[in-house]
Amino acid sequence: MVTLRVAGVEYGGWTAINSIRTGMDAIAGGFTIALTEKWPGAAQRPIHKEDAVELRIGDDTVIKGHVDEVAREISAGTHTIGVTGRDATADLVDCSTMLAPGEWKDRGLADIVREICAPFGIAVEVAPGADPGKAFAGFTLQKGEKSLAAIQRLCAARGILPYSDGRGVLVLGPGQPGRISTRLVEGVNIKAGKAKDSRIGRHRDYTVYSQTNLWGDANANAGTKGTAHDAGIRRYRPTARMADDLADGITAAQQAAWDAKIAKAKAETVEITVQGWRHATGLWRPNRLVPVSAPSLQIEGDRLIASVERTLDEQGGTIARLSLVGPGAFDLLAQKEQGAVTW
Question: Which residues form the Baseplate hub protein gp44-like N-terminal domain (predicted)?
Answer without folding.
Answer: 2-87
